[in-house]
Structures are given as C-alpha cells and as structure tokens.
Design a protein that fits this description.
This protein has 182 residues and is mainly alpha-helical. Helices cover 90% and strands 0% of the residues.
Length: 182
C-alpha cells in the first residue's frame, strides 16, 4: 500500500514538473523524465511483478500523453505561423496592386493636365463661337476629371498608409510569434 502511495506521489510530482517546466526540446525532456521515473522506481526496492506492470503501464501512458501534447503544440505553432505568413503575403500583393494603380492614375492625370493646358493655350481669335463652346465644355470636363483623379489619389494615399500600418503590425506579430516559439 505504501509503495502505491509513493508511486502516486511520484506521478503527481512528475505531472507538476511537466506542467511547470518549459522544455527546450521535447525529446530531451522526455528522456530525462523517463530516466527520473526509472531511477525512482528502481530505487524503491520493490520487485513485485504486479507493481512492475502497473509502473510500465503508467509510464507508457505518460509517454503517450507527452507525445500527443508535444505533437499538438507543434501543429498549433505551424498553423499560426502559416496564417501570419499568408496574411503578410496577401498584404504585400495588395500593396503592389495599389502601387501600380497609383502610377497609372498619375500618368493619366499628367496627360489630362497637358491636354487642358493645350486647350487653354489655343488661339481664341482663330476659332468660331461654336469651337469656343466645345473647348469650354472640354475644359470643364477635363477640370472635373482632374478633380476626380485628385480625390482618387488622396484615397490611394490613405490606402497606402493603411497598407504600411498593416505591414508594421504584421511584422510585430511575427516578432511576437517568434519570441513565443522560442
């Protein structure tokens, strides 16, 4: 009876040391715990066959449990790392797409401004009143397009700042995950 009590106390101590310890490598910890258990069991001096079988059963149970827990932790860490990596790659792709759209919009804006300047520099004495009316309409529509594009540029600048903020947050999250995984 006393050997069973001491065995149960040893198991509780092992469980507590497992939950308190933060192992650097699961295999080294498993080996050291197995060695501790065996040395304690051998030093108890009991040679009872039933005690050996229950000890072997308990040892195999804890070994299987430790293996399951370490496998689960590894799977969770890999899943978390993959999620952050996917988010980071998605943010990079979005940022590249927005940069290309911004460049296209800037080019359109410069072309329209050039057209507007050419339209304004035209010789009004050579044109008839109908041509003046059409030029005024074109000028008005070009000004409107310019103002619309300027608004789009503002929105794109805000999106660019938002992307940069997301990149910074993503980097911070990656650093936190790497620190937690150590």
């Amino acid at each position: 009876m006393s050997s069973l009590l001491s065995h149960n106390k040893d198991q509780l101590r092992i469980r507590k040391s497992l939950s308190d310890a933060s192992p650097t490598s699961p295999s080294a910890t498993t080996k050291s715990l197995r060695h501790e258990r065996l040395s304690r069991l051998n030093s108890s001096g009991t040679t009872d066959a039933s005690n050996d079988t229950s000890t072997n059963h308990a040892e195999s149970y804890f070994l299987r449990r430790e293996n399951r827990l370490s496998a689960r932790k590894k799977a969770e860490e890999e899943t978390a790392n993959n999620d952050y990596k996917k988010m980071y790659e998605k943010a990079l792709a979005t940022n590249q797409r927005l940069k290309s759209r911004l460049e296209t919009s800037k080019q359109e804006l410069t072309m329209i401004q050039d057209q507007l300047q050419r339209a304004q520099k035209g010789k009004p004495g050579d044109c008839t009143s109908n041509m003046l009316e059409t030029e005024k309409k074109e000028s008005w529509s070009l000004k409107k397009r310019i103002s619309d594009m300027e608004e789009q540029l503002k929105v794109k600048a805000e999106l660019k700042m938002e992307n940069q903020r997301l990149k910074d947050e993503n980097g911070a999250l990656i650093r936190v995950i790497s620190k937690l995984s150590k």
